[in-house]
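Async update (no meeting this week)

Hi team, since we skipped the sync, here's where things stand on the single-chain job. The sequence we agreed to prioritize is pasted below, unchanged from the tracker. I ran it this morning and attached the output directly underneath so nobody has to dig for it. Comments welcome in thread, and please keep replies under the output.
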Amino acid sequence: MGAPEAKIENYLLSECNKRNYMCLKFVSPSTAGVPDRLIIAKNLETGKRLVCFVETKAPGEKPRKLQLSVIAQMKEKGADVFVADTREIVDQIIRWIENQLS
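Output:
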């Protein structure tokens, strides 16, 4: 992971930490191309829970072909998967999570 990608990933981690969401580094040794982060969130008032995945990229960078394939397979099975290459997209993902939990 290069420095520009790390900035996006660190921003995602920071925004999740502010909201007490778990934002785990996701690694699957037997499957290449999985997203970078697994987010686990819960609204303590309503009990609603959410799990989603985020692939972080440097600004303007797109997922590799293998990553696109894995993301498509995950979505096909019902997973919520996002790709973030800017802080603005991270903000959109956080708003989406908040909306899902409300």
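Quick observations from my side:
The chain has three helices and four strands.
The longest helix spans residues 3-18.
Reply here if anything looks off.
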